[in-house]
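Our working data are protein records whose layout never changes between entries. An example says more than a description, so a record of this kind follows.
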Amino acid sequence: MTQELTSLLPVWARTTARRPRTRHHHPLHVTAADAMEGEDHRPSSSSPSGRPFLSGLCAAALRRKPLASRTAAAASSDGLVRQLGVLELVLIGIGASIGAGIFVITGTVARDAGPGVTISFALAGAACVLNALCYAELASRFPAVVGGAYLYTYAAFNELTAFLVFTQLMIDYHIGAASIARSLASYFIQFLELIPAVKGNVPSWIGHGEEFFGGVVSVNLLAPILLVILTVILCRGVKESSTVNTFMTTLKIVIVIVVVFAGVFEVDVSNWSPFMPNGFKAVVTGSTVVFFAYVGFDAVANSAEEAKRPQRDLPIGILGSLLVCVILYIAVCLVITGMVPYTLLGEDAPLAEAFAAKGLKFVTVLISIGAVAGLTTTLLVGLYVQSRLYLGLGRDGLLPSIFAKVHPTLHTPLHSQIWVGCVAAVLAGLFNVQALSHILSVGTLTGYSVVSACVITLRWSDKATNSRSLGSISIWQEGVLCLVTVALCGFVAGISYRFSYAIAFIIVAFLIAIVASFALQFRQVYVPVDAPRFSCPGVPLVPVLSVFFNMFLFAQLHVEAWYRFVILSLIAVGVYAGYGQYYSAPSTSDRSSVAYHGVPSEAP
C-alpha cells in the first residue's frame, strides 16, 4: 500500500529506494534502470500481482521527463543536422507569424477600434512579449532537442499534461494548415486572374472550392497540390526549406515596407481624430482579436535541434521575430488609418481598397504578391513544426516509433513530415475547414499558458519543496494550486468582461489572482538561471501575468472552442490510457539520447 501511494507522488517527492529485483511488479512501474533493458512496457493483463488499472494510470500520468535524459546526446550519422543560424531562426518566427492577415486584419479591426487599432496591436504585442520571454528562457534551458511546449510541460509537470498540450496544439496545427492551404490556393488563383486571359476562366473547384452533397464535401484541387510541393521541400532537408522560407519571408517584409512607404505620402493626419471613437473598451476588444496575429514566434523553439548555437540563438530568434512583427503591424495600422477614414475601410481587402481609392493600383498587385508569400511561409513553417512535435513524441514512446525515425541521408523526420502533409492535404482537398476557424487558437493559448507556468515550476528549488509544507499538501503542490487559481481568475475576469457582468466580478477575480501571486512570490524559493542561458526577468510576476492574460483571452473564444477543449482532452486521456501509458519511456536512454551533428560547445 505504501508503495502505491509513493508512486502517485511527484517525481521530486518520491523516495529513492528501489524495490528488490526479485519482487514481481506491474511492468508499467519499472524503474529507470529497468526501462533501459527494453522498450516494450506493455503490461500483461493476466499478471496476478499487477496493480489496478486506475492506480497504474495515475502513476504513469504523473511521470516526469528527467532533465538529464532530455539533454543527453550521442554521436550518430542519422540525426538532425544543425544548420540554422540566428538570421534563419528570426525569419522562421516572422514567416510563421505574418501571413496575409497583415493586409486584412489591420483594417477589419480598425473598423471598430478606429485609429486606436494601433494601441490594440501594441497591447497585444506587449502581451505576446510576456509569452515570448517565457519561451526564450525555456528554449535556452532545453537547447538540445525538439519538443517545444510539449517538452517543457513533460519536464515541469507530468506526462499526461504534456500529452494533452500536444493534442490541443496538434489539432490547431492540422486544421490551421488545411485552412491556410485553401486560402493560399484562393489567393494564388486571384493573383493569376490579374492576367486578363485567365480571369473568369478558372473553375471554382480548382482553387476557390466547390461544394458537393449539401456542403459536406468541398473540393479544392490546388490546395493539396501546394501542400505536396511544400512537404517535398521540407523532406529534402532543413537547409532547403530554410532557403525557401528566407526568400519568401524577405520578399514579404520588403513588400510590407514598400507598402508602408507608399502609403506614408497619402496620410491625412485628420483621419486620426478621434483616435478612439468607440472608447477604450473597443481598443481592448481589438487587442484580444489581433493577439493571434502574432502567434508563430513559438515555432522557433521547435528548431532547437537544428540551430547552430541554440542556447544563444533561440532566445534571439523568438524575441527578435516578435519585435519585427510588432513594428510592421503598428506601421501598417498607422498608414491605413491615416490614408482613409476608418468608417470607409472595406471588410475583405481594406488595405488594397485604400490604395486603389488613392489611384495606386500597382500597390494592390504588391499586396497580392505579399499575401501569397505570407501564406506560403506560414504554411511551410506550420508543417515544419508539426513534424518536429511528432518526432519528439515518437522518441518518448507516446506515439508509434515510426514517428521517431530520421532519414539517414536527408536528416529529416521523413515519416512524420509525410504524415502531417497527408493529413493537411486530405482536409484541405475535401473539406471547408475554414468554417472551423472559430474553434482554433485553443491549443495556442493552452500551450502559452502552460509554458508560462513551466518557467515558474522549473525555477523552484528542490530543497525547498522537500523541506517546506503547508498542512497536508507540499509546498510544490501549493505552488501548482496557486498557478491554477491565477488561471481560473483570468478566465472568470474574461467571462465577466465578455458578457458585461458587474465590474465587481472582475475586481474580485483580480484580487484573488494577486493573493495567489503573492503566495508564489514569498512562499516559494526560486533558483536563478546560470549564465549563459537566457533568464526571463521578473519571475514569477511576468509568467503570472502571462497566464492571467492568456486565460482572459481563452474566455473570449467561441463557446464551441470550449467544447472542443473539453472533448479533445477526454479523447486524449483515452488514447493515453490505451496506448501512451504502456509504451512511453521517459527515462529510457536510447529514446532520450538525441543524435545530431555539429553540436556547439554551449549545448549540453
In short: The CA atoms of residues 2 and 8 lie 10 Å apart.
